[in-house]
Write a structure and sequence with these properties.
Helices cover 18% and strands 31% of the residues. By secondary structure, the protein is of the alpha+beta class. The structure holds zinc ion. Zinc ion is lined by residues 45, 142, 144, 161, 227. It comes from Paenibacillus kribbensis.
């Protein structure tokens, strides 16, 4: 009899635990794993986000983000917002802009579905890029379907964003367009563990981050913003000119989870799009 009570009590506790975990909103799923220095980078896709909710359609969709909360105002009235349409006729060759230096290596990562995208967090600060002499450390990367940036008015099938932060808190996002093509085996490990529901961080085996990039690292740069609330500006955007490929099957597996998680393009205004191609 005593044993039964113990079983019963532990069952009740288990049920409570399940309800408590699954009842958590996407916003709280990783709050226990963040620290202050990671906050700005995490906010790129609002892993740690207070209410209200936002989404990619309806009353909480991109055209309403600026009204949802005071600190989302830049989403509605910002002047240097992202993404943008990259028109090749507007590209300006920079005499001083060097191709970015990417120092990515084999890295332990964790994966989560934060309700807005699938995000992979780098477990160590060993991956970084150098942009005009400043080092930006990789915090996380994630995916959009379809792409957020356009090239001459056209979206790519998907877009990959590597989010970096410098020691002084500046953000740099490296964007890589993904086109339908051959299967991309560099993503096999991640794709085999895509979390179908909003999830807590789960450890993934070590992956080779350098293999996720195209060979050619020539890029287009401009000054923009986070593409999700709070749409904070002064983000250094680097969009690689060469896309990578994924198979139709790989793309559709992501699209099943996120049929649409892209923000429409924003006005470029007087901003410059520079390229390191001479
Ligand atoms: Zn993004």
């Amino acid at each position: 009899m005593k044993k039964n009570w113990k079983v019963c009590l532990s069952s009740v506790f288990s049920i409570f635990l399940v309800v408590w975990i699954t009842g958590c909103t996407p916003q709280s799923t990783t709050s226990s794993t963040t620290n202050t220095s990671a906050l700005a980078a995490d906010n790129v896709h609002a892993v740690v986000q207070e209410s209200p909710h936002w989404s990619y359609e309806g009353n909480e969709g991109p055209e309403h983000w600026g009204e949802l909360e005071k600190n989302f105002a830049a989403c509605g009235n910002g002047q240097e917002q992202s993404p943008v349409n990259i028109e090749y006729t507007r590209l300006e060759a920079s005499q001083t802009q060097q191709p970015i230096q990417v120092h990515y290596t084999n890295t332990k990562v964790s994966i989560l579905n934060n309700g807005h995208t699938v995000q992979i967090n780098a477990a160590s600060p060993s991956n970084y890029i150098v942009l005009d002499g400043t080092k930006f450390t990789l915090k996380q990367f994630h995916f959009h379907h379809p792409s957020e940036h356009q090239i001459d008015g056209k979206n790519a099938d998907m877009e990959l964003h590597f989010v970096h932060q410098s020691d002084n808190g500046s953000t740099a996002v490296l964007g890589v367009l993904i086109q339908n093509g051959n299967e991309n085996k560099a993503f096999s490990r991640i794709w085999s563990k895509l979390p179908t529901d909003v999830s807590k961080e789960a450890a993934l085996e070590e992956i080779n981050l350098a293999a996720l990039l195209p060979k050619d690292l020539h890029s287009i740069r401009y000054s923009g913003s986070l593409t999700t609330p709070p749409c904070t500006e002064h983000v250094n955007w680097i969009v690689l000119e060469q896309p990578i490929e994924m198979s139709a099957d790989q793309i559709s597996r992501f699209a099943t989870l996120f049929p649409n998680n892209h923000r429409p393009v924003q006005q470029l205004g007087t901003r410059k799009l520079t390229t390191d191609h001479q």
